Amino acid sequence: MTEVNEILMSVLSTIRVPRPGDRVHKDECAFSFASPESDGGLYVCMNSFLGFGSKYVERHHVKTGQRAYLHITRTRKTQKEDDNNSGSGDPPKKKPTRLAIGIEGGFDVEQEQYEEEVKVVLFPDRQEVTSEDLASMPDVVRERVSLSMAGLLAADSVSHTLQVQQWDGEVRQESKHAAELKQLDNGIKIPPCGWKCEVCDLQENLWMNLTDGKVLCGRRYFDGSGGNNHALLHYQQTGYPLAVKLGTITPDGADVYSYDEDDMVLDSKLPEHLSHFGIDMMTMEKTERTMTELEIAVNQRVGEWEVIQESGTTLRPLWGPGLTGMKNLGNSCYLNSVMQVLFTIPDFQTKYVSNIDKVFNEAPSDPTQDFKTQVAKLGYGLLSGEYSKPAPDPGDDPSSSTEPRGDQVGIAPRMFKALVGRGHPEFSTNRQQDAQEFLLHFINMVEVMMMTFSCSVCFTLFTFAFTHFAFFCVVQRNCRSGMNPSEAFRFLVEEKIVCQQSQKAKYTQRVDYIVQLPVPMDQATNMEELQEAERRREEAESSGAPPSAAPRAQIPFAACLAALSEPETLTDFWSSAVQAKTTATKTTRFASFPDHLVIQIKKFTFGLDWVPKKLDVSIDVPDTLDLSSLRAMGQQPGEELLPEVAPLPLVTPDAEVKAPVLDDSTVSQLCEMGFPLEACRKAVYYTGNTGIDAAMNWVMGHMEDPDFSAPLVLPGSSSAPGTTPTESLPEEHLVTIVSMGFSRDQATRALRATNNVLERAVDWIFSHLDDLESMDVSEGGRSEGGSEASREPPPGPRVRDGTGKYELFAFISHMGTSTMCGHYVCHIKKDQQWVIFNDQKVCASEKPPKDLGYLYFYRRVVE
């Protein structure tokens, strides 16, 4: 013990007591998904408060020299069958009564199901110090170590804070209609029980309109349950806004819904409004579940969906490498599905998992905030098989079924979700999101992190210009971070616009990662069945009877592909050839084919009332795909191109170049739309002040031009405004631009053209690649020698190209009425066997619903 005393005394200055605001990682390892419940427990550094599993704590000790760690182990308690008698003197677990987290009556974090053991471990010899051992140590040691231990145990962990941020879904606002609600004196009195819908005789989910006392059934849910929408239809016919749910009225209040405000609301005059129809609020008792209780019931059944997850068949659970489930962190199934698919792609496996030791060794002091580290951690967790184990039996709800459930221990991607969602208005929340939007968001982050930045300004410029086509021409030449896995999806799209009057063409290219496939509903093969169903629905609606289930539209995949490739007619197109508005056609083709092709079925659209809706369609998506016929051919022999600019007036050497007279109102209107000022000035200039429509067409047709936002240079002028002498160039700006991979000559020219403004200078380079093609960009940042003839023009974005033949290997499906709700699962083909990944459940798929997918993933067939 004397030796331990001496060691603690020597490292006492490194043992910190957590303060408010400190990030304490006591639930999850920074490099793995080890936790206090894992074998070996979790070691929390008593200086940085980072957590490490037994596999990685030694690495941290060697790298940092830190010796004192708080070792936390948790053992699951045995659950008792009788919830009202825990056997330990603890009160029974309460059921949630509010749709809330972190407040009284809301969802609790289940901490009471574990027994916890803590002790201090001193490295490298792993000497252990318990709380009892501290009692015999010097006061200064005992006080500091005890305070640190107590502080770590009392502090909310980062994952706990993210999971249980105080949130109350029950907070409601006072209705704007409550104070002066009109109530009809029609003599209607509502009995205290025995209600039924006045249209369809339904006896549950009933709502009473607070204006006229009509008792009608509520909305129909997406699964066909609920009511028949008669209360909603009554509002649409009368405009009476407020309704109360019968069966929820108690002396404490009731569920009140405002159709006009489209939300649950408060009615401060509810007792008065109810008494108007003979209802004494103080004597009423609750007989139906409130809307909050219904939502809670849904939230407690996450993952138990009956559609798309093959629930009608007995699924065989799978375990092992590449078959690891992911815990749903509360509407995180979109993230789970996307990442499961991405880590079946060799590029992502090679980049993040094959080199995981190198990634971890190069990790910064706080690996929880490092993108590459957390992606590698997630990839290894999914592919290693270490966490692909059956989940322990919860014990408090024994199942009568003898079939295995398929649930796994799996991994909980809390650190990863927090990192990739940080600062994003949607992905930082616990709301459901669009899987396609998250896929693009993640690819964007990969692209950003592939660059080497010398300063925060460079990083900001990169993210600002990420979608600029010309920018890629520089990025892909100067990226120094090795293989970019997002290149597996990247391809070029060629858009060809042909002026129908002059027959001259314009070609542009853009970078894309996903093919968005339209759904032509008018091409359904069962159109007669759909029309008959619509006729029956209208009849049922007019008679007040519940409608029958609608059939699903059967759409041929070939029809979707044809809708994608057919020419689009552009009306009011401003043609630079005829200097007037005319009609043009736009054709879209593949300028390159990626190694892996992602196809999004555009199922989500807007109705005539601008309410988002999901198309219920079945599409015969093929297992193999040949897109060779959609290869772009480029400019054809004898084909003339549209002039890039409007005809310019003749300028003689002795003529004075005067500033053009531009329509300031048109320029202002374009600027208010968010376009760069110089682009707006050029649009007005090159369309001859002919108005906003012509200028807008010019803008839309030239957005991909390299010099789109460059200053307007008049004919006869030698340079753009803002030229500065060489001696005034700030050396620090030159160094910054050169460190990004550009040459010193390029940096000098850019700064001269932009009045030495660094951000504008870099953007100027991106916009003037054609002007700079004689300047090679070398790794060292210098212009390399060589004859003019030996220099090649700057290449475009780095894309992989090959045959347009593909095979399906994965798809992500969505269930629900919109991307903002519902549930996502994915199916992945592994060793010729389809596997369903439904959060923590991983099973062999018997009937993969390939016709109901949302995102489809194809890989190139190598001939």
From TrEMBL:
EC number assigned by the record: 3.4.19.12
Binding of Zn(2+), residues: 197, 200, 217, 230
Top enzyme category: hydrolase
Ranges for domain UBA: 661-702, 728-768
UniProt superkingdom: Eukaryota
PANTHER family xrefs: UBIQUITIN CARBOXYL-TERMINAL HYDROLASE (PTHR21646)
GO biological process terms on file: protein deubiquitination; proteolysis
Disordered as annotated region, ranges: 73-98, 389-408, 528-551, 776-802
Name of the molecule in the record: Ubiquitin carboxyl-terminal hydrolase
Listed CDD domains: Peptidase_C19B, UBA1_UBP5_like, UBA2_UBP5
Naturally occurring in which organism (per UniProt): Cyprinus carpio (Common carp)
